[in-house]
Design brief:
Elements: H1 3-8, H2 62-71, E1 79-83, H3 84-96, E2 103-106, H4 113-121, E3 124-127, E4 131-133, E5 136-138, H5 141-150, E6 153-159, H6 171-180, E7 186-190, E8 212-217, E9 229-233, H7 236-245, H8 253-262, H9 265-290, E10 295-298, E11 305-310, H10 313-322, E12 328-329, E13 339-343, H11 347-356
Parallel strand pairs: 2-3, 2-6, 6-7, 7-8
Antiparallel strand pairs: 1-9, 4-5, 8-9, 10-11, 11-13, 12-13
Helix pairs in contact: 3-4
């Protein structure tokens, strides 16, 4: 076992070490003209004009895996494709946490699927709340380290950029935490909104920190939310464990084809241009909201959204709904009883937000 494997494989549940999983009909590299090994129909469905859906798909489409690895600047062996980041979160919790014994650490207010997956697995949930300071919300890294060590956390989730608060965790702090938790916990950096942020990916830390895993998705910047294409990037030995725990055919063929087309140079160039538009609009909206007397505070954000506190949050929510604008009501999240999360839309959509809230832009 290599030094890197020694940092992560002992974190895997004892009963899953060496677990081979299910060997599907597409998991063996067989060749032939007549495929009768998967009990598939010999005829296409009448609604399937392209006749491409009667066969089970490749569990990890090679061309897509290579394209995603190039996009995220990692080797294909470090990458597992799944049904959005949600599946990756669930796989990590199931593979590493023994029910009733191990814990998952989260930093509320934060994306809720970490806690949902922990509960479904019967893993204890350890919460270390974000700190609300002058520069915005930020994780308490020393408290996270102490809690993880003292309470047996196998997984520490860091959302960066954070949803819904918008802040990013500096890479040196992630590296220090990973070093402190080496052999004790896996630090999972959720970069679903990484394209909108200002710092490099935490994948740049992985060569020296095998106990870091990174989550990425095509749902946000790449506008493929319905395709459900996400990845986990981690030490190859851990990727093999997660693959063994994954359902046999996680990537539908039409979704894989769409994702591969979206990763071609022309589509990527347009995606980058739209990300730049979002950044311009994000700043325009932030400045306008911050100047409004109806707004208590607007938080800096490295995502494609803004978190804003209102003096009368119900009135703001109702005013937006009245003109057909739906935003995320954050009042159910810890410490956000006066807050809304507003996704950055197109210029005209953002104009409607400002108009509904009676916000005049600063000249």
């Amino acid at each position: 076992m290599s030094a890197a494997e020694n940092d992560v494989l002992p974190l895997v549940r004892e009963d899953l070490r060496g677990f081979a999983g299910y060997a599907s009909a597409r998991s063996q590299p067989l060749r032939g003209e007549i495929w009768l090994n998967a009990n598939e129909s010999a005829w296409a469905n009448p609604a399937d004009a392209g006749a491409g859906s009667r066969r089970y798909p490749d569990p990890q489409p090679q061309a897509l895996r290579e394209a995603l690895a190039a996009l995220y600047d990692c080797s294909p062996g470090r990458l597992l494709i799944g049904r959005g980041s949600d599946e990756a979160i669930d796989l990590l919790v199931r593979a590493l946490c023994a029910p009733g014994r191990d814990a998952v650490l989260v930093t509320p207010p934060v994306f809720g699927m970490y806690a949902v997956s922990a509960r479904l697995q019967g893993a204890r949930l350890v919460e270390v709340p974000l700190r609300d300071g002058e520069a915005g919300y930020a994780p308490d890294l020393p408290a996270i380290e102490r809690a993880a060590l003292e309470q047996g956390a196998k997984l520490v989730f860091l959302c960066s950029p954070a949803n819904p608060t918008g802040g990013a965790v500096p890479l040196p702090e992630i590296a220090r935490l990973a070093k402190a938790l080496r052999g004790r916990a896996l630090v999972v950096v959720d970069e679903a909104y990484g394209e909108f942020g200002a710092q490099p990916s935490a994948t740049t830390l992985m060569d020296k920190n095998a106990n870091i895993a990174v989550l990425r998705t095509l749902s946000k910047a790449h506008a493929l939310a319905a395709a459900r294409i996400g990845v986990v990037i981690a030490e190859p030995a851990l990727i093999q464990v997660l693959r063994a725990c994954q359902a046999p055919y996680p990537v539908p063929a039409p979704c894989a084809a769409l994702a591969l087309a979206a990763l071609q140079p022309a589509a990527l160039a347009q995606t980058r241009a739209r990300v730049e538009q979002v950044l311009v609009e994000r700043e325009r909206l932030r400045v306008a909201l911050a100047a409004s007397p109806a707004v208590r505070r607007v938080y800096p954000s490295q995502g494609n959204y803004l978190l804003a506190r209102f003096h009368d949050v119900q009135a703001a929510f109702d005013a937006l709904l009245a003109v057909g604008v739906v935003v995320r009501d954050q009042r159910g999240a810890p410490g956000l009883d006066d807050a809304l999360r507003i996704t950055i839309g197109s210029s005209s959509q953002n104009d409607r937000v400002l108009s509904a809230l009676n916000v005049r832009e600063v000249a």
